[in-house]
Amino acid sequence: MPQTTTTISRAATTSAETLKRAARASGRSAQSEATGGDPKSGSGRSAATALVIHREQVCQPGESIKLQRFQREATSSKWLIAHERTKAGLAAHANGVKATSPEWVRPPRPARCHWRASLAVGVELTKSGDHAYFSGVESCGSIWACPTCAAKKRAERANELKTAYQAIQADPDLHPGLFLTFTLRHNNTIALQTLLATIQKAYAQMRSTRAWRDLMERLGHVGIIRATEVTYSKANGWHPHFHCWLITDGRISNKALQAADAEITEMWVSAVTKATAGKAMVPNQERGCHISRVTSQGVAGYIAKTQESKTNSRTSIAYEMVRADLKTTRASNSVMPFEMLDPDSTMAAQWCEYVEATKGRRASAWSRGLKQRLGIMGTAKPERDPLDALEPSRLAYVISAQDYDAMTPEQRDQVLSDTVADPVVAAQTHGTPLDQLFSDGGFAILPPGASYSV
After folding, report:
1. Which of 66, 102, 189, 352 has its CA 20 to 30 A from that of 282?
2. pTM of the shown model
């Protein structure tokens, strides 16, 4: 079995008594609890961190996409740590660099996802026995740069779009409206940071004009949902673009649609021209903007199954707008960002540029008041982990710090699959069953410290 390229070790200050309380709580409570401290900080300052801190991705037998995420995550962590070390003037690669060493460089948050946040890692099993996941590990929460966290958050946001479409169907005063895509002219000499700043500036400028407001009024504008997507090709460089769902109060006629297409295209070219000093990013009339109707057929397939799988509709508006983690590019010479992390990839520089350029940017945005209008305000918060809504779970067994840190992505995937298949056998094979955990009088406390090898 191939070894992962990143090895991480950490010890926190969790006591044996805290672990005992966590195990007891798992048996009597339907929901996992986390107490004290800030486990996301990775500083080890928590004085009482329960085993269950952040719910990890759900794994079902036979779903290779889960293993793919573990593998991509390991590659991302290696590249990001090496990049941070290079920026600090250190050698990109090093073995066993401890947190107390002068050569220690704190890894960026996406590189620390799945790092151990306590003295041991729990394996949780849902009440039905259909799902297993790790607890007691960090969760970076990045919708852009983490294969696992992006899947969670983008599934949540796709579910919001599904709910929005259902609300539109149920309201006779609303119509699905139009799907708009805005892009820039681009080449392999323009930095992603520059392109993202330009497309954002141009979009804001276009929407602030009187011509845009008048057009929206004629079209029966109710609200807009915008999502940002980025692709890359060696020939043409970065390609950021906006997908916008324009919801209206009635059906737009073919004549009005044709006229709107021409007006919006002209507005967009003008806005990009004003947003940039030169002509390098100004699109032509044919490629800068694309407009089409939102059809019920395109959304229906996604409504049937909102959770990610190979059977998802790849033509729905929800998939097109927010499920970038599942998409592959239509062009053979172009890749989605997460595809940069696949085996044999040599795109470390591009990946690190992408992570830095997207940090802090919004992946999607709704018009003010639109969620409330559609009756979904508060039902699906963008930053909430959708796995928190899973059925009650229990702590099946515990994996020692040493064993978890040494696991390859393939082994982590195998642990979760084995737990779903037979939790009793999995506990004996991969960890320590709860009835044996404290039989020797307490859980072994490891000496404090942290290290990584890249």
Report:
1. 352
2. 0.76
